[in-house]
Specification:
Number of domains: 3
Shape: globular
Structural class: alpha+beta
CATH topology of the largest domain: Butyryl-CoA Dehydrogenase, subunit A, domain 3
Strand order of the largest sheet: 1-4-5-8
Number of strands: 12
Distance between the termini: 29 Å
Helix content: 40-55%
CATH class of the largest domain: Mainly Alpha
Number of helices: 10
Amino acid sequence: MDLNYTPEDIAFRKQVRTWLEGNLPRKEIRTLDDRLGWHRKLYEAGYLGMGWPKEYGGGGARPMEQAIVADELARSKAPAPANSLGIGIVGPTIIVHGTDAQKKRYLKKILTAEELWCQLYSEPNAGSDLAALKTSAVDQGDHFVVNGQKIWTSGGKVAHWGLLLARTDTKVPKHKGISCFLMNMRQPGVDVRPLRQITGSSEFCEVFMTNARVEKSDQMGKLGEGWAIAQTTLGYERGGRALARVTNYASTHSRLVEAAKKMRRHGKPLIEDPLVRQKIGRIWAEIEVERYQALRTLTQLERGEHPGAGGSLTKLSYSELEKRYMELALEILGPYGQLTEGAPKEFQLEIDTAAGEQGSWAYAYLWSRAGTI
């Protein structure tokens, strides 16, 4: 594992930081149009799809350069682009498994956010056990007919297209009967319904497909290869932002330390309690472990190696850390940590949750549970 940045990497980081200082949005992003505008800025600067092949609009950048950009975006608390799922998951999956025609048709519009994407994987009875999915895709000669329900679909209400897993063979073991498709979300037979969460927001949707159509040209890979393709997708989801995630954790840790200095117990700052200091210190040590894991993965990628099971181990490690982290935050903040709004200013914190959305400490605590899926 290489823990050192090259002089070129240091210069590149400075370049990215300077660009962000001059281009970050001056006002809060509230609408989809606002987010699309910010997305276009990032795209025009060359900071989206950096590792994609140049012939499809990417930059052909090294893994470390991609990690540096993600890290600097996190450090500056930059808003997320409009097509995060498309760029982080769908696009890389098409690059690996798609046909030349699919790459030409979809990749550039993913990068420019002309077409927004969602992921149609989880179902009411197939979440952690994804291979138990029931949504069917029946071959009709020149197309497939899709029937079923998906749930917990991020961005479904604005998506133009979805990356779909559906069952095409019920006679083989469940992992082998799944195929992957690119499905038009703006067609008759696709009903998208926002889900209202306990937080009061509706980031997720449920999607009902009734005789929806998927063209044969939008089949990804061969029939029955959907499970293998899904492993590629989840690998990108779990390993792509490891270093940036650590930067977010470190930023919120600093805010938590400040809150512990301002909270008082028995007339003394809470930070003077040896047990509180011990717990805060332990979390910091675990954040550093995550940093080294991220650097190990980047070292492998720089060498052209595949992280393999390391991506899943990283996912398990940081999702469990995030739960412990947010439990400690609420323990320190007490009732103030349970408020989604109205807390005294010194105990408020707008932080990136596991979903990349802005929210309160209480909101992040709830998201830390979702991140373990």
